[in-house]
Amino acid sequence: SVPLSFFGGVSAASRNGILVKGSNFLEVLNQVSVVAFDKTGTLTKGQFEVSQVLPVSGVSEAKLTGYTAAAEQQSTHPIAQSIVSAFPVDKTTYRVTQSTETAGHGVAALINGVQVVVGNAKALDANGIAVSELQTVETVVYVALDGVYAGAITVADQPKPDAQTAIADLKKHGVNETWMLTGDSEPVADAIGTEIGVTNVAAGLLPEQKVGIVDQLTTAAHAKNGKVAFVGDGINDTPVLARADVGIAMGGLGSDAAIEAADVVIMDDQPSKVMTAMTIARHTKVIVW
Ligand code: ADP
Ligand code: MG
Predict the structure, then answer these.
(1) Which of 25, 176, 183, 237 has the fewest CB atoms within 10 Å of its CB?
(2) pLDDT tens for residues 47-101?
(3) pTM higher than 0.95 for the full model?
(4) Identified catalytic residue from 38, 169, 233, 245
(5) By alpha-carbon position, which residue is closest to atom 27 of ligand 1?
(6) What ligand 1 atom has the least distance to the C-alpha of 101?
(7) What are 251-259's contacts with CB under 8 Å, separation 24+?
(8) Ligand nearest to the CA of 122
């Protein structure tokens, strides 16, 4: 049987813009000892801005940005959206006849008969294209045209305004282990992780590797009678939401699939609402028991 006041907790949560799909998740929230966050769209705004266009010699900026934006038009990833809005595509000039998107990598497309690959270093590597990685704390989108490295476009995202407070509050309330999991590169992840104050960062992860880390964290937490919460926006992380003891989705930016897979949905996408949900769960328990 469910204590009556857990129902009170569910409605208190909903008044705070937090949808809890069943009072049992308040009990799980009460036991959370580790919180793992996705980076893009969860701890950061998920709104990238283009900062540098770096073609190799012999390739014009227009050619680099044109092919890149035409390829990115096939993707809904926040990085893709930033590039398409910075470099609007003239569809009569760039004809896309084939395209495939690979989660955690990028996009490959056939455009005007040119084989275009855009994405991180792993994406180019997977296509057999050598690239020397730029040393920067911005996210780098590498570009290859017909199998030859053609340059890069760097984009940058920013932490959400309450990201740092969200982590500090969790620590203050005894959640001493906080993770940021990301498919982005290590220098970018470390810089943002340090700024926000998470205790652990794992970078360069494919979606299935995020599932693997959450599995490991869960095993370790359960051995100490704790539980693991994973917080994500659902872009490529729906399986992780489903796997954690409690999956928390950002409901605004998040996809329908994420909202479906999650146990708790934060309607306004603020990471500080994780602590709000845990506080409501704790008070609910205190009142009843
Ligand atoms: P995160 O873990 O930060 O939410 P994703 O798993 O969605 O990120 O993507 C991981 C990385 O894969 C990105 O940081 C980027 O380097 C690359 N990537 C994925 N999709 C695209 C795309 N459409 N264009 C360029 N790069 C991409
Ligand atoms: Mg993501």
Answers:
(1) 176
(2) 999 999 999 999 999 999 999 999 999 999 999 999 999 999 999 999 999 999 9
(3) no
(4) 38
(5) 106
(6) 23
(7) 251/19, 253/41, 253/46, 254/41, 258/232, 258/233, 258/234, 259/234
(8) 1
